[in-house]
Amino acid sequence: MNKTAESVWSNCLDIIKDIVEWQHFKTWFEPIVPLELKDNVLLIQVPSNFFYEYLEEHYITLLAKTLKRQLGRNARLEYRIMIDSGNKTDKGYMKVPSGEEKSHSNTLVLPMKITGTDGLNPFVVPGIKRMQIDSQLNDNDTFEKFIEGDCNRVARRAGKTVSEKPGNNAFNPLFIYGGSGLGKTHLLHAIGNEVKKLHPNKVVLYVSSEKFINQFQHHSRNNQINDFINFYQLIDVLLIDDVQFFNRAEKSQDAFFAIFNHLQQSGKQLALTSDKSPKDLDGLQDRLLSRFRWGLSADVQPPDYETRIEIFEQKMREEGLEMPREVVKYVAYNLTTNVRELRGALISLLAQSSLNKRDIDIDLAKKVLRNIIKTNSKEVTIEAIQKMVCEYFDVPYNRLLEKTRKREVVQARQITMYLSKAFTKNSLKTIGEHFGGRDHTTVIHSCQTVKDLMDTDSIFKENVMELTQKVQLASM
């Protein structure tokens, strides 16, 4: 049977999707298009240079092993990278080999037309002196203090790459988007602080879009628009927060367009934030939106339960505070919207503890959270979780209590213990007693087994996540 690029790549995907997380598979592998198979060399097309760099950094070993299983030890992978010049009619491609096969001699760059600045003068002023510019950064917002999770991993890691190689990476501009209070501004400041640490000669500036607009309007009233644009063209790393507010100011968009073009063509770095992705922004010029899509658009989502616990614990360390684990879990479980709420809860707990001269316990946490969120949550019981898991896997309740090695029963019991530990305040000993008198070490082993299987078995992980949602709904 003759192998084709499509059949080889399809077989590779069948292996890969069982190894990587589902969301990562959707993001990094589904957009790939197999193009050609010749002499054991598979040519695939990826949407951007960012895709190529990300695959090479994070998945090259997996790709190499998977491809060699299909084509033998001499298998090689090459990429064709789609390159958008910003003009719908002008597209080009760059063909590069994978990983260990790279060399200058076999890299082919096809011709591309480079577009201009759409008739806008870039306002270059030769010989202008480099000034000392206050970066307007918050020194406390660093990458070390930004907790990474599935909700923000791509954005954080792209920010680190930008900081290490400002202007000399595929993420220019870096466009970070997501709801309020999820850490977008923190990431901008972290990028700026890291650049200043690694590249002290770089000129860095953080500015909100509203401040940018106000500055532009002030300079416009005084006929100093050129001076305004010339100032921003001195910046090496420009960090602009909340670009969605540019929709209020058409003329400010013109100025920003000229600045954007000049900085990017000069090898300078831009990082932007917004509450929406570029495709969903209203009221901004198409030429700006097109340029926002040149680099990487990375979203930040509300943190999951485990990440919220890490964030809350970090805030506690910053304040030099300790509190019972059950309080941490209670706060993290009930505050699900954004990071800002977690900090607000911590400050409120500290204030109430100090004013009332009492230790922080679960009762105080419940009192504080009543003032932050509306909650009618009820505590879910071990019995309720057992019932849900038994119904989900169609396992009789009494089987959970038996000493059996049947895989379906053992996994159902382990998942039930895992969920009981996560969603109830019962001790490990109490949880074990609900399963035929098992001891706390069995509960610990079961919880760790569930975590390990979630990392390696995608179907198992989906089952656990679905049951987790059921338990959460039951507690509301």
What does this structure look like?
The chain is α/β, with parallel strands linked by helices. It folds into 4 domains: 5-109, GMP Synthetase, Chain A, domain 3; 153-299, P-loop containing nucleotide triphosphate hydrolases (Rossmann fold); 305-370, Helicase, Ruva Protein, domain 3 (Orthogonal Bundle); 382-474, Chromosomal Replication Initiator Protein Dnaa, Chain: A, CATH 1.10.1750.10. It has helices spanning 5-16, 22-28, 49-58, 60-71, 153-164, 184-198, 209-221, 225-232, 250-265, 286-292, 305-319, 325-334, 339-356, 362-370, 382-393, 397-401, 407-423, 428-433, 440-456, 458-474, and strands spanning 33-38, 41-46, 76-84, 91-97, 108-109, 174-177, 204-208, 237-241, 269-274, 296-299. The strands form 2 sheets. Strands 1-2-3-4-5 form a 5-stranded mixed beta sheet. A 5-stranded parallel beta sheet has the order 7-8-9-6-10, with helices on both faces. It is flat, with a radius of gyration of 27 Å. The termini are far apart. Mean pLDDT is 80; it is low at 84-92 and 100-131.
Furnish the topology, listing elements before pairings.
Layout: H1 5-16, H2 22-28, E1 33-38, E2 41-46, H3 49-58, H4 60-71, E3 76-84, E4 91-97, E5 108-109, H5 153-164, E6 174-177, H6 184-198, E7 204-208, H7 209-221, H8 225-232, E8 237-241, H9 250-265, E9 269-274, H10 286-292, E10 296-299, H11 305-319, H12 325-334, H13 339-356, H14 362-370, H15 382-393, H16 397-401, H17 407-423, H18 428-433, H19 440-456, H20 458-474
Parallel strand pairs: 2-3, 6-9, 6-10, 7-8, 8-9
Antiparallel strand pairs: 1-2, 3-4, 4-5
Helix pairs in contact: 1-4, 5-6, 8-9, 11-12, 11-13, 12-14, 13-14, 15-17, 17-19, 19-20
